[in-house]
From TrEMBL:
It holds the Pfam family DHO_dh. Belongs to the dihydroorotate dehydrogenase family. Type 2 subfamily. InterPro entries: Aldolase_TIM (IPR013785), DHO_dehydrogenase (IPR050074), Dihydroorotate_DH_1_2 (IPR012135), Dihydroorotate_DH_2 (IPR005719), Dihydroorotate_DH_cat (IPR005720), Dihydroorotate_DH_CS (IPR001295). It is a peripheral membrane protein. Catalyzes the conversion of dihydroorotate to orotate with quinone as electron acceptor. The active site is at S179. It comes from Flavobacterium agri. This is Dihydroorotate dehydrogenase (quinone). One of its GO terms (biological process) is 'de novo' pyrimidine nucleobase biosynthetic process.
Length: 340
């Protein structure tokens, strides 16, 4: 029903307007008694064989919603009814910020892709914390970043503020230094500043009674040498794992007219590269740490390829927009079929 009826209607709207309209629709329908149960009956697959224990957390299934969809933790309870095993909120920054000027979100229909240059638009970490206090048992990842006006030399302070504010309200953290839409942010992926940033968060983490897993989200555009640096950094800082990958600045092989828009590309064109990064990290590290695979998952087979490459869990974003919530069910059923 989604691809035949709802998607054509949504795709008539501006991409960002469609996003907010969908949020409003899901919220209103979920408020009607019985509708949450209907969503769960349509899309959730409940089976013990789907459960995964990764970096000390138990996931009811390995399919999550990637950061960027529910930036401000406004709809995570409702979105969990579509069968996700976990939901990552953010990217959150210490202070609210509007992000980049509109228009900043573009569909590339011929490529089943999206270009975004949102720029960490969010209402600030404290506002999100208030909404997270209403969590009804959803496993939550907290994706954190820095404000645009914060210079890189002071970036660690922003990440530390978000870490402390979110600590009691999320199950794991994701350090986002790989978005292409905040000026100079990707410079923090260099070995020295990244090691310092992660160590600063680990120092805060180590004094907690129950430390939380910290993951690093990396760009797909890193060279092999840079990926080897990432392996070293994970080992040296003892963080819990890696999310591979964020959006790409590459435009190779695209067909759509608006492919020249600035921003990060997600969707099908990213599938091959993100899987290559997962496989490289897994093989070169000797499977030393868990990897969450994200990028170009538009079918159950796409997800299985990432799991085969070395991912422990997978996340959806653009594929969820193009394929609808049935994709979550399809992936979980395909995983179950393999386990028989």
């Amino acid at each position: 029903m989604y691809k035949q009826l709802l998607r054509p209607l949504l795709f008539k709207l501006d991409a960002e307007e469609a996003h907010y309209f969908t949020f409003s629709m899901v919220r209103k329908l979920s408020a009607i008694p019985g509708f949450s149960n209907i969503f769960r009956s349509l899309y959730a697959v409940n089976d013990k064989k789907l459960e995964r224990e990764v970096f000390g957390l138990r996931f009811k299934n390995p399919v999550g919603l990637a950061a960027g969809f529910d930036k401000d933790a406004k709809l995570y309870n409702e979105l969990s009814n579509f069968g996700f095993g976990f939901i990552e909120i953010g990217t959150l920054t210490p202070k609210p910020q509007d992000g980049n000027p509109k228009k900043r979100l573009f569909r590339l229909r011929e490529d089943s892709a999206i270009i975004n240059r949102m720029g960490f638009n969010n209402g600030g970490v404290e506002a999100a914390v208030e909404r997270l206090k209403k969590n009804k048992g959803v496993l939550i990842g907290g994706n954190i970043g820095k404000n645009k006006i914060t210079p890189n030399e002071e970036a660690a302070k922003d990440y530390e503020i978000c870490f402390e504010a979110l600590f009691d309200h999320v199950d794991y953290f994701v350090v986002n230094v790989s978005s292409p839409n905040t000026p100079n942010l990707r410079e923090l992926q260099d070995k020295e500043p990244l090691t310092a940033l992660l160590n600063s968060l680990q120092n805060l983490n180590s004094v907690k009674a129950n430390p939380k897993p910290i993951l690093l989200k990396i760009a797909p555009d890193l060279t092999e040498d840079q990926l080897l640096d990432i392996i070293d950094i994970v080992r040296d800082t003892k963080i819990a794992g890696v999310i591979a990958t964020n959006t790409t600045i590459s435009r190779e092989g695209l067909q759509s007219e608006n492919q020249t828009e600035m921003g990060g590309l997600s969707g099908k064109p990213l599938a091959k590269r993100s899987t290559e990064v997962i496989r490289f990290l897994s093989e070169k590290s000797g499977k030393a740490f868990p990897i969450i695979g994200v990028g170009g998952i538009h079918s159950a087979q796409d997800a299985l390829e990432k799991l085969d490459a070395g991912a422990s869990l997978v996340q959806l974003y653009t594929g969820f927009i193009y394929e609808g919530p049935a994709l979550v069910k399809d992936i979980n059923k395909a995983i179950l079929k393999r386990s028989k």
